[in-house]
Amino acid sequence: MTRTVVIDARFCGPAASANGGYACAMAAQWLDGPAEVTLRVPPPLGRTLTVERDEQGVSLLDGDVVVAQARPTTVAVDVAAPVSLADAERAAWRYPWRDTHPYPTCFVCGPQREPGDGLCIFPGPVEGRSLYAAPWTPDSSLADAAGNVRDEFVWGALDCPSGIVTDLFGDVGLILLGRLAADLRAPVGADEPHVVQAWPITRDGRKLHTASAVFTAEGSLCAVARAVWIEVPAQN
Question: How many CB atoms lie within 10 A of CB 115?
Fold first, then answer.
């Protein structure tokens, strides 16, 4: 039987395409354990994507076009020490994209989304540290029957902060997610406060390498990710 995926318009990043982390999860869900997902084109909304398996992993296809490719991986990241919930709350007040967001309706970090509709994760700089952080209390509507946040929303939470923290590289233009590798290590409980944080790793021309993590309010690691963001050439 052919398996398919349809990404609802609610889960957008840019207005006309899916949030990158959510789209990556739609491919990674067919694998066991940590996965690395490469986005080949902007993931479309409301279209039926075909799931194709091979010896390497899984691909999502829009007709003949490869949208995303997922492969098993190991997420090798030196995880930054957790930020306290109080410091994350203070950092969120300094959210740098609040008034100049390139995708203001993004499901994860868009300032035009309301709580319960979007994730409303708004990371800002943490005083004295080279990273960004935000509080996140996941809505109960995001949970499975056991009360834990479903994987696709954890992937989403790992995605956007890892892009916003590229501000720390200095002069960065418009960016899009190219690759996300995530390791979901422990359940993220709905209706419980968490901290999402992200930090820069290195820049290689137009490729910006960053990492992100989700912690409980007490500092226990729930999930970690490594991302590659691509700076989009300016349009003349």
Answer: 9
Write down the residue that tokens 């996941």 correspond to: 138
Domains in the chain with CATH codes: 4-72 (no CATH), 85-231 (3.10.129.10)
Q: Are 226 and 213 in contact (CB under 8 A)?
A: no
One-letter amino acid for residue 134 of the chain: A
How far is Cα 98 from Cα 95, in angstroms, rounded to an integer? Answer: 6
The beta-strand segments (E) located in the chain are 4-6, 35-39, 48-53, 58-62, 65-72, 124-125, 132-136, 175-184, 194-204, 207-216, 221-231
Cα 136 to Cα 150: distance, rounded to the nearest angstrom: 14
Helices marked H in the chain — which ranges? 20-28, 85-92, 151-164
pLDDT tens-digit map of 184-235: 999 999 999 999 999 999 999 999 999 999 999 999 999 999 999 999 876 6
Q: What is the pTM of this model?
A: 0.96
Helix residue ranges, H only, 41-150 = 85-92
Q: Using CA atoms, how far apart are residues 217 and 78, in angstroms rounded to an integer? A: 20
- What spatial distance separates the first Cα and last Cα of the chain, rounded to whole Å? 46
